[in-house]
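User: Could you go from structure to sequence for me? I need the amino acid at each position, not a summary. Structure tokens:
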């Protein structure tokens, strides 16, 4: 699973917040899949397609009816779209023209299994723009007045040459491909199409096209854009919005105008989107933050209002019969609500809880693909919910059946306490037969068919331990308490060959999180029944060198509203002190052989702990920011600006205290 240096050494362009490989016109990092296997659950028969030498696979998608796959194949100098037949395992390319994957996922299914839509490289575009060593003039940026707080972004456009490169690599030609014949049909003219989504009946396309002027201060996602509906020939049918450059969005807010556009997958051609009712500003006091609207063909006139949300819109999904589940979230109070919107009645609230309360999380609906998107699987009046099943004893995933009329739930399955079993699919309408992914602390993840009535299991896959050298790792979920009474927890890993009573060097790897409610900050995370899998640049690799690892010791920063960071350093040091005291008390390490590490905000934490305490002998701070005056318009969950909370920014910046 480790990425080779040859992959990391591929050329990279940083344009508008994207990292692009100019040779392939796709992401600089590939998914790196080397084989796609298809295995029948019924009889165990299997087909496989291996990536040709010096290529990689990615973006694997079943057709809605499950009979075919599409996937990308990345070569040294381009990306191709391929298809695979589920019944025979036969795989073949769909087009001899290279895909343009600059914006991300380049292809999707239009119908059950016969047609896909893709973004291709624009034909006859010539060589990439070149630059001169001599500038054409001064670098001038103009501001036209008004407050425009902008967060700090990386990989932005820097000059006119970057703008030309952006236009060259991100311009694409949208086209449909007939799976049977390979015939490619253009949809309109080439453009900077950031998003293309076909309607469920395949007759219309939602096309989001980026326009000039480009910005050197925000990413391409915030550039001006036209949001249009076009027919299969590319002709304009209706204009949903013309959105200006989003360079003055309030901190923690959203742009004004239509956003979050999706097709209702249960109707032939109904587009749904969201509009802010507070100017996108979370500081304004209004009765409703957002409204959700819809519009169908011919996409003219006023949209129909579906709902208004008191909090910020969080998402919408439909069941197979057209019932919608609408979620809204409030950042300030960390609260979430989900409503059931039936076509013939008033909205009914099904969930209402703190987002910090993992123990009360009812789970997420199981969905399945249909043309135009995904729907929530429904049997009669019921849907299925699966979740982590957080508890004081650790995570125990579950499957529930929820009646949408009465909101009563029935527990169909809960993972055993000595294993970690996640429901992948419900195979029968009565919920008796499930496809689960099962692992234990000594058995790698594999798929099984489980019978919920008699508890029997049948193995589907037999993946082996990818790193048997680590079999001797011991793992334990540890709970302890901070000096102020807040409950904390983490997972202790002991290296292979560890002897009881031995004291070994240790690294703690953590990530701070903000909480409003101190009772919820202490909820247990994780499970000691999970298999230890090491991927990428993992801190767990240090286990092979004789280190113990205290993984994910909770570092809660607690405070109401925007005040949590007022005592950031004190709470951080107190949490770290409690963790150190616990592992020393357990006899697995000594105080003078403990290090600390983290990634991103965890790196920021690491530098602060080294600057404000003598608890650790060393630190690994990976990809962090250490001087908060360089992020003056907020960071992480801090929404106050540098000028509103100058002392807080200074106190939290380890650069000031090193």
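Assistant: Here is the amino acid at each position, in order:
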């Amino acid at each position: 699973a480790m990425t080779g240096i040859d992959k990391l050494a591929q050329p990279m362009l940083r344009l508008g917040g994207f990292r692009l490989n100019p040779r392939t016109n796709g992401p600089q990092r590939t998914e790196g899949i080397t084989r796609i296997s298809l295995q029948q659950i019924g009889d165990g028969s299997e087909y496989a397609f291996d990536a040709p030498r010096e290529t990689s696979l990615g973006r694997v998608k079943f057709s809605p009816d499950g009979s075919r796959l599409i996937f990308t194949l990345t070569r040294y100098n381009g990306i191709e779209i391929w298809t695979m037949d589920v019944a025979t395992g036969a795989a073949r390319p769909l087009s001899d023209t290279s895909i343009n994957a600059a914006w991300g996922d380049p292809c999707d299914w239009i119908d059950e299994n016969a047609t896909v839509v893709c973004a291709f490289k624009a034909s006859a575009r010539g060589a990439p723009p070149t630059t001169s060593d001599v500038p054409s003039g001064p670098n001038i940026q103009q501001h036209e007045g008004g407050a425009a707080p902008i967060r700090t972004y990386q990989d932005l456009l820097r000059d006119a040459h970057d703008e030309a490169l952006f236009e060259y690599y991100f311009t694409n030609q949208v086209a449909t491909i007939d799976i049977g014949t390979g015939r490619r049909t253009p949809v309109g003219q080439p453009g900077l199409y950031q998003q293309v989504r076909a309607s469920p009946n395949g007759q219309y396309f939602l096309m989001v096209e980026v326009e000039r002027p480009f910005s050197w201060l925000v990413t391409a996602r915030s550039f001006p854009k036209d949001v249009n509906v076009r027919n299969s020939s590319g002709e304009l049918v209706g204009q949903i919005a013309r959105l200006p450059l989003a360079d003055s969005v309030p901190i923690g807010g959203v742009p004004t105008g239509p956003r979050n556009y999706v097709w209702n997958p249960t109707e032939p051609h109904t587009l749904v989107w969201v509009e802010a009712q507070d100017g996108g500003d979370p500081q304004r006091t209004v009765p409703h933050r957002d409204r959700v609207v819809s519009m169908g063909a011919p996409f003219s006139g006023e949209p129909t209002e579906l709902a208004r949300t008191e909090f910020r819109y969080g998402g919408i999904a439909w069941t197979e019969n057209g019932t919608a589940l609408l979620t809204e979230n409030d950042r300030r109070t960390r609260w979430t609500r989900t409503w059931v919107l039936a076509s013939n009645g008033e909205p009914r609230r099904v969930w209402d809880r703190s987002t910090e309360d993992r123990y009360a999380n009812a789970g997420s609906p199981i969905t399945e693909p249909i043309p135009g998107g995904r729907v929530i699987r429904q049997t009669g009046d019921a849907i299925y919910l699966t979740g982590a099943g957080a508890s004081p004893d650790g995570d125990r995933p579950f499957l529930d059946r929820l009646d949408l009329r009465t909101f009563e739930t029935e527990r169909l399955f809960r993972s055993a306490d000595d294993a970690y079993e996640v429901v992948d699919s419900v195979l029968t309408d009565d919920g008796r037969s499930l496809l689960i992914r099962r692992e234990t602390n000594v058995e790698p993840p594999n798929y099984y068919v489980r019978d919920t009535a008699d508890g029997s299991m049948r193995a589907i896959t037999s993946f082996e331990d990818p790193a048997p050298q680590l079999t001797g790792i011991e793992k334990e979920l540890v709970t302890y308490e901070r000096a102020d009474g807040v409950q904390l927890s983490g997972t202790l890993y002991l290296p292979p060959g560890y002897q009881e009573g031995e004291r070994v060097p240790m690294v703690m790897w953590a990530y701070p999180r903000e909480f409003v409610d101190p009772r919820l900050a202490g909820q247990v995370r994780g499970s000691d029944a999970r298999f230890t899998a090491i991927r990428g640049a993992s801190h767990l690799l240090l286990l092979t060198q004789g280190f113990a690892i205290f993984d994910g010791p909770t570092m809660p920063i607690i405070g109401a509203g925007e005040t949590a960071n007022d005592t950031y350093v004190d709470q951080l040091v107190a949490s770290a002190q409690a963790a150190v005291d616990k592992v020393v008390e357990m006899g697995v390490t000594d105080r003078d052989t403990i290090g600390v590490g983290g990634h991103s905000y965890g790196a920021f934490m690491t530098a602060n702990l080294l600057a404000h305490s003598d608890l650790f002998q060393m630190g690994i701070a990976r990809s962090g920011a250490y001087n908060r005056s360089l992020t003056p318009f907020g960071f992480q969950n801090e929404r106050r600006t540098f000028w509103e909370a100058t002392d807080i920014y200074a106190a939290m910046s380890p650069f000031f205290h090193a």
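One structural detail worth keeping in mind: The first helix runs from residue 5 to 8.
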